[in-house]
Design goal:
Blueprint lengths: L1 H47 L2 H5 L8 H10 L9 H10 L4 H13 L2 H10 L2 H25 L28 H4 L5 H37 L2 H7 L4 H11 L6 H13 L4 H13 L5 H8 L1 H29 L3 H4 L2 H6 L2 H13 L1
Length: 356
């Protein structure tokens, strides 16, 4: 009898795991072409957008520098830990505190890869709302920081990485840009960007991405829909709950998207999902010590406060917008992606990414 019950329990567990794997694979196949596109563009941006070029625009002006930092951060594919050395580099090169804070928020909350996968798994409206919300949150935090501590715009004592991004042929210190540009052809630069995107960047993010799809598959299968509809269907309490869940969690913007899609499928409101998409990627407990070093204690309080306040307000606004337009995001999940690209392309790119 004991052997029978053990065998039945094992069989049930295996069945559940197989069903979770199927649900996860379905979401992954839907997102794969857009994920590949995002990784490709991200690799090319890494190569052609040098930190020293960006930093020139982020050192002066209480408002202008923050606007540029928030705008530049939107397409860059860096997570909440990966953005820290980049922000420290900008700070070292003269970026003011407000611009640095804006860059630190906008960059992990959005990115070409996460924008692409948002279109694949959610809908065009959320694809637009997500980067706009990231920009507004980052801009507000940066403006607040600059107007409170404008006189304290000292630089931090961290050395930026100025090495050649193609093959490390020079350290960027004793090699002027006009001279270094002669070292490599356009083809070499393009290949280096592709190689970075698919082998360096994707290797760094792939574990989190696959974990995000597995969690999404588990939510799709196991989370009771009536429970989420009843308690997470919208309102200020829902927003605060998603905020509390997202702030301490380490999850990149791309990996958070399938989780948000699964939550919406189970009845979570679009605004509550947006709160998770904003708070989760931009904050985590592990990065707070480095954030304190880059921004100072007061800067970190402004940083976290801006994310919390704007995430909740924008979440409520998003629910109002979907309701006013009469749009059910739950019914539109992944529809745009499926209508544009053929099934063989979805499957082929999913197999390619799984191989990578």
């Amino acid at each position: 009898v004991n052997q029978y019950h053990f065998g039945a329990s094992t069989g049930l567990i295996m069945t559940v795991l197989v069903q979770i794997a199927r649900a996860s694979w379905y979401l992954f196949v839907e997102a794969a072409p857009y994920l590949i596109f995002g990784v490709l563009v991200a690799g090319l941006m890494y190569l052609f957008l040098a930190p020293e070029t960006i930093a020139k625009h982020l050192y002066s002006g209480r408002v202008r520098s923050v606007f540029k930092a928030a705008l530049l951060g939107i397409p860059l594919p860096l997570c909440s830990c990966g953005v820290l050395p980049a922000a420290a580099s900008l700070r070292k090169q003269g970026a003011n505190r407000g611009a640095t804070a804006a860059f630190l928020i906008a960059t992990p909350e959005s990115g070409v890869d996460s924008i692409a996968i948002t279109y694949a798994l959610l809908d065009p409206l959320m694809t637009l709302i997500r980067p706009v919300a990231a920009f507004l949150t980052a801009f507000a935090a940066g403006i607040t920081e600059n107007f409170i501590s404008w006189e304290a715009n000292d630089t931090v004592s961290l050395q930026p990485d100025m090495n050649c991004r193609v093959d490390g042929c020079c350290d960027g210190q004793d090699c002027p840009p006009e001279e270094h540009n002669k070292h490599h052809t356009l083809g070499q630069k393009l290949w280096s960007g592709i190689r970075y995107g698919f082998f360096d960047l994707f290797r760094e993010l792939s574990g989190w991405i696959f974990a995000g799809f597995i969690v999404a598959g588990a939510i799709t299968l196991l989370l009771p829909q009536d429970l989420t509809t009843k308690y997470l269907g919208g309102g200020i309490a829902t927003m605060l709950f998603m905020l509390a869940a997202g702030i301490p969690t380490y999850i990149c913007a791309t990996a958070s998207t399938p989780v948000a899609a699964a939550l919406i499928l189970k009845g979570v409101s679009p605004g509550a999902a947006l709160v998770f998409l904003l708070a989760g990627p931009a904050t985590n407990i592990a990065s707070l010590t480095v954030l304190t070093r880059v921004l100072g204690k007061r800067g970190v309080i402004i940083y976290l406060g801006s994310i919390a306040i704007f995430a909740v307000l924008l979440g409520l606004a998003t629910d109002w917008l979907y309701s006013s337009l009469g749009i059910s995001l739950q019914a539109r999940l992944g529809v745009a992606s499926s209508e544009i690209l053929p099934a063989w392309l979805h499957l082929g790119t999913a197999l390619l990414l799984a191989g990578l």
